[in-house]
Amino acid sequence: MKVIRVFGNIIFMAAAIFFCLCMSIRPLCASTVSGAVLGRAVSSRVLDEVYKVYPEVTSEQMEEVENFLEENQAVKELAGAYLDVMAGSVKDGTPVSPEDYEALIGELKQDVFPQLMDEMGDLLTEEEKNALYEGIDSQSEKIGQIMAQGAAEITEQSYPPVETALELYGFLDSFSVKALSLGVVILSGIIVLASGRRRYRGLLSLARDGIVSGIMVGAVIPFLANTAAHVLTNRILGRTAELTLTPLFFYGGIFFAGGLVLLVMYYVVRGRRR
Question: Membrane-spanning regions, if any (predicted)?
Answer without folding.
Answer: 175-194, 206-228, 248-269
